[in-house]
Structure formats: C-alpha cells, structure tokens
Amino acid sequence: MLTWMLLSSTMYISVLLSPLLLWDRVATAAKGDDFLILYVGSIIWGVFSYVVANVPFVYLDFADPEWVQPYRIQDGDSKKVTFDRWLRALRLIAFNVLVIGPMGGYLMYRSGRIDLSLSLPSVFDLSLYDIISLAIQFLGIVLVEEAGFYYSHRLDFGLRFLIVHSTIRASTSTSTRFTMSGPHPSNDLISAAITSVYAHPLEHAFSNVLPVMAGPMLMGSHVVLAWTWFTMALFTTTVSHSGYHLPFHPSAEAHDHHHVAFTECFGVLGILDYLHGTNKTFLDGVKFKRHRTYYTTEPIKVTYPDIKKD
Q1: How far is CA 29 from CA 26, 96, 116, 142, 216, in A?
Q2: pLDDT by residue (tens digit) across 276-301?
C-alpha cells in the first residue's frame, strides 16, 4: 500500500507541476506558434494527464491486491474489472479522448481567449496583485465547471427520463419493463477509473469537456494555468469513478452515490446540489459522513460503518 501511495503521489505531483516547470522549453520548441502551443500542446497534455492519472488505478483493477479491498466503496464483485469488460469500454473511451477532446481543444484555440504570453514571472517574483489575480481566476474556473457540470448532467438525466417514459407509454406490451441503473453507461459495465470519459460522445462533449474548458476561456487564463487545471480536473474525475475511497485522495462517495441514485449529486463540489435540494438522500446517509479526505490508513468504512437496518 505504501509503495503504491508513494509512486502514484510522485506521478501526480510531477504531472501537476510540469506545465509551469516545462513552459520555457515548450515555448522555445514551438517557436511561439499559437497553434502548436495551444491546440497540439493541449491535446498532448490532456491525453498524457489522462493516462498518468489512470495508470495507478489500472494496476489496482487488474492486480486486485488484498490491501485495497477494504477501500472499495461498493461491496461485491459485480462491478469489478474484467479484461472483457475493460476492452468493451476501451473503444468508446479512446474515441472520446482522441476525437471529442481535440474538438474541444480546437474550440479553445479558435476562441482566442487563452493567454499565450511566452515569458512568465518566476513563482518567487509574483506580486500580491499576481497572486490575487490567479486566485480569482482559479475560483472562477472552479465555479464555471461546477455550474456547467451540474446543469448539463441534470439536463442529460431529464432528457433520458423523458425518452425512457415516452418509450414505455408507446409500448403496446403490458409486460414491457425498463431498468435504469444510472445516467452513465459505465454503471452497466464496471466501476473503474478509466470510465470517467465513458459516455455518449455528445454527453462527453457538453457535460465533461466544455465545463472544464469554459472556465479558462471565460477567465482569459494563461495556457499554463489551463493545463494545470486540466490535470487537476482529470485527476479528480478519475478518482471519482475509480470505485475506491483511499487515504489522502479526494472522496468519491458523492459521485458514486450519483451512479447508484441517479437523481442526486449531479455536481462536483456539491454547492448546487445543496441549493437545489438534489442531495437529500445522500445527506441523510452514511456516505455523507464518509465524504471527506482522510489521512489515516483505517478505511473510512470502518470509521463510519454501514447503518444496520432493523
């Protein structure tokens, strides 16, 4: 466990800091070409970040070490990864990563809203104004993603609900039944980190890609901040779909609840779920108590055990 934690943390931190540390080399190699830096660079960085974020969890899914079992959010083997299930998901995942993602990158490039200044001040040379400006930009980016992610996913659920019930009404068979395990195709497949981008291409474009890219565009952020943000967003969504709640990692409890009770927990931060009342069952359950980052090796399910039903 300790080895996995150290290696994965080193990978994540290295990737997170790389845009800033490598910026001078990237700008020099691209010779100031906006297309190469923003479009090609964003594609390369997005794919690289996605792969790095998933490698540690792919190991957990296939090696299935004994130490990780107590950290599984859902008990049982029905959602565990098999090679067949993994391959079935891979084609759509590859399409979304290699086709839909670059389309979003092109939109970002054409928007002209990303700052591509070649020279950046050293971290130690930042003024108070620079620090405040970065903080405001980052806050704006996070809030834009929260709004985009929440409302697009809630709209997606609404459309699916209407389609399903229209189909049922139109059916002449009284024995017709429909089972819906959640708004995300991965619910019928596996609980695995790679399924963070396993969605219909339109859903992936409007619910996953655009909310993440819209923030940097609206805030006019520098491409280094945009790439750093993309890395953070990819890491967070990877953890949220992993099926694990590990120490020192963001909690996946809320999004896991969303895949079980698909009418709740549409957002990332939970702010809009709270304001719109779309997390009431979640708030009343034990998963809400577990929904935090913890810093001990004791599994959170041991700290907050399941509530026994009478």
Answers
A1: 5, 28, 14, 31, 23
A2: 999 999 999 999 999 999 999 999 99
Segments forming the whole domain that contains residue 237: 2-303
Residue 308 domain-assigned (yes or no): no
Distance CA 173, CA 10 (A): 57
Burial (CB count <10 Å: 0-12, 13-18, 19+), residue 32: exposed
Q: 46: which 2 tokens?
A: 């997005």
Q: Please answer whether residues 189 and 89 qualify as being in contact, where contact means their C-beta atoms are separated by less than 8 angstroms.
A: yes
Average pLDDT, the chain: 86
- Number of structural domains, the chain? 1
Indicate the pLDDT class of residue 74, thresholds 50, 70 and 90.
confident
> At 6, is the secondary structure helix, strand, or coil?
helix
3-state secondary structure 140-204: HHHHHHHHHHHHHHHHHHHHHHHHHHHHHHHCCCCCCCCCCCCCCHHHHCCCCHHHHHCCCHHHH
Q: Is residue 189 part of a domain?
A: yes
* DSSP strands (E only) in the chain: none
DSSP assigned state of 308? P
CA distances in angstroms from 30 to 17, 35, 41, 226, 241, listed in the order given = 20, 9, 9, 18, 35
pTM tops 0.90, yes or no: no
Pick the closest to residue 204 from 103, 53, 85, 86 (CA basis): 103
What's the pLDDT at 172?
Answer: 38
- Candidates 271, 282, 18, 17; CA nearest to 145 is 271
Residue 310 lies in a domain: no
60 occurs within a structural domain: yes
- Using left for φ > 0, alpha for ψ between -120 and 50, and beta otherwise, residue 298 falls in beta
